Amino acid sequence: MKTMKTRFNKKIATAVLAGLLTVSFLPMTANACRKGGGQGGGCAMKGGQNGKHLNGLLGIWRNTQLTQELGLTDEQTNKLKNTDFATREKHQALRAEMNSLRLKMEQAFSQEKVDEDAVRNLTKKIAELKGKMIEQRTETRLFVKNLLTPEQLDKAMNLRGSGKNMQKPCRMNGQGKGNGMRKGMGNM
Predict the structure, then answer these.
(1) Over pLDDT 90: what percentage of the chain?
(2) Do 144 and 81 contact (CB within 8 A), yes or no?
């Protein structure tokens, strides 16, 4: 009888964890990729939202044609390049930490007797880490907004909206190597 109750509690804990994970990822994936204006149109997962976000502009230093069209100076291009690498390195470290915390959470819920205090503590750590990730995205957006002139920003947003690829196409929009949804589907 006790074994059956333990199994039942384990199933409930697993279902609760699955539900929490589903609810936490639902907003992010619901509109992950929307069809934007043209070929390169807005993958929210890559900072897109139809060109409204500035995060994707960090990588424009890789496209010499775009840097010329925008009239970027060598100094601006170098700052974008250096910040792009630094930001990606920070993001990679935060992502690794997040994966580790999620694994610990899964492990905590897989125990016969769930340590509720440990789960709550892990939840707080995950929330703090998500906050750091949001802060990093905000700092990146502020950096780009302060680095480029208003004319360059306008031109970049117009180029992005007209379908010029300023970043790699979003695979979830069916533009990748066959790993995503069909082009134009846009919902999951």
Answers:
(1) 47
(2) no
169, 176 contact by CB (below 8 A)? yes
Residue 59 contacts residue 167 (beta carbons within 8 Å): yes
Judge contact between 133 and 76, C-beta under 8 A. Answer: no
Report the alpha-carbon distance of residue 107 to residue 123 in Å, rounded. 13
| Structure-token pair, residue 53 | 């976000």
Q: Which two tokens mark 37? A: 């204006």
Measured distance CA(168)–CA(40) in Å, rounded: 8
The reported pTM is 0.56
Per-residue CA distances from 1 to 7, 53, 103, 131, 167 (Å):
10, 56, 30, 44, 58
> For 128, how many CA atoms within 13 A lie in the half-sphere containing its CB?
8
Range of lowest pLDDT (39-53, 76-90, 104-118, 164-178): 39-53
Instruction: State the Cα–Cα distance between residues 154 and 172, nearest whole angstrom.
Output: 27
End-to-end Cα distance, the chain: 42
